[in-house]
């Protein structure tokens, strides 16, 4: 299994997917730097003259950090999701179509070991990338605003941020044992988009009470079903809540800011049971993928 | 000991392809030619034997271990027909990966891999990435991968189809060496010359079913053919000779001075003497009469001519 795991790392490091990811990440971080800088200056300008010990200024600076981080993670979650999806979407069908598997699988290695080796390779690689991206966003935001410094919350938030990696890779590898490489990539992107849309409906509906009143429970049902089909967005919202320890700060933040945060997913985390659901979802996708691969004709 | 045994091995696909009721027995150290037209189901059979696909019915074993099991796969070296190696690895890295998967200790692999790459003819290019390899080089690399585990049974699916004549000759020589070392070779090939020179036994597959199997000499001598060189032959006499003898005959060569070479398909060897007498009675001179050596390619074409086979014209 470790042979397959290390082969996967070598593959990701040598193929163009890494080069493209690094280039796009650098571009993203440069853009994020300017956005953080602009937002940081704008807040600083509006609060100029207040003493640094003023509690209002502290809350404002913290809110400013929340907005910048919310924005950063909003886009970072897309980057991470697409890396996870596209690095693993062709792992079975693509390699079977190309004939790579025909040469490898007659070797005396159990199929489940090959599958888990690939899974561990993709998951560990993307989680290292997630750590780099997570750290970069925190560092850039800290330069231009204030970020939460509670180590436990940061560690938990990182694992929540990176938890979409095993979820998406488990599902993508399962899909790859059924669909062609391109078909699976499209399916996974649409499913991820659907989950994101479900989360967005939830956020928008919570902003417009009249809309929620008019649409009744149908919006809740749609967003709920989409979130259940793809729980990635719910995990990202939980991550932001844990990072900011939002429940303890809620009373200090003005309602106008509160509405703004919700757009980025802050303060709209699903219930704790959702985390268990996402965990079970990941494990079931992994187990189904293993089961399917054990029986698949290559 | 029996190296490969299949009993009613069947794979059915929704499109009607696959293979049906394949039963073969191959002894250890034997070279077995698995022949058939395109789409006959040869690769499907091999894929089942190496554990890539699962049979619908029947069973098979490799050196007593059920196909697909880890124990059976320990014995196998496989060169697939349609394959590609990881193009982001170098040739040596690909073979090293296969060596690791075979559980070969690093120190053994360090000695074996360079020697093997040299043997298959890509020693100088072994550090190049596979993406820069020609098809022939990839096939040589495939042979190195198949051999790295020092397998007892080699499954080779068109092992030299992408190679130039020199490469083909080298592969032929390598296969003879491997047979000499006592390896069991299961060869899928359309190169009948190679099969005829290497294999002890052959099977002919058509539409997923085995039509014939046996030793090479058995299948070639099922219907003895005699070649006769005669003088005083006139083509107008030929239909009469055919009718009188009741044999299937053909004119191979004829010259204006009455010299001709004819071939007759006999049901029994005794018919040869009777045919000789018939020709002499008609005033012809019999210069030479010998059993015609049938080539495997002729046998292949004869056996399949007029029969439908999947994906190809009759």
UniProtKB/TrEMBL annotation, chain A:
The highest taxon in the source lineage is Bacteria
UniProtKB keywords? Membrane, Transmembrane, Transmembrane helix
Signal peptide start-end: none
Q: Which Pfam families does the annotation name?
A: ABC2_membrane_2
The membrane-spanning stretches of this chain are 66-86, 119-143, 155-174, 181-201, 274-293
The entry's protein name is ABC-type transport system involved in multi-copper enzyme maturation permease subunit
Upper lineage? Bacteria, Bacillati, Bacillota, Bacilli, Bacillales
UniProtKB/TrEMBL annotation, chain B:
**Is ATP-binding set as a keyword in this record?**
yes
Q: Which GO terms describe its molecular function?
A: ATP binding
Q: Which SUPFAM superfamilies match?
A: P-loop containing nucleoside triphosphate hydrolases
Q: Which UniProt keywords apply?
A: ATP-binding, Nucleotide-binding, Transport
Report the domain of life of the source organism: Bacteria
Q: Which residues form a coiled coil?
A: none
Residues in ABC transporter domain copies: 4-232
SMART domains, A to Z? AAA
Query: What InterPro entries does its record include?
Result: AAA+_ATPase (IPR003593), ABC_transporter-like_ATP-bd (IPR003439), ABC_transporter-like_CS (IPR017871), P-loop_NTPase (IPR027417)
Q: Which family does it belong to?
A: Belongs to the ABC transporter superfamily.
Q: Which PANTHER family does the record associate with it?
A: ABC TRANSPORTER, ATP-BINDING PROTEIN
Protein name in UniProt:
ABC-2 type transport system ATP-binding protein
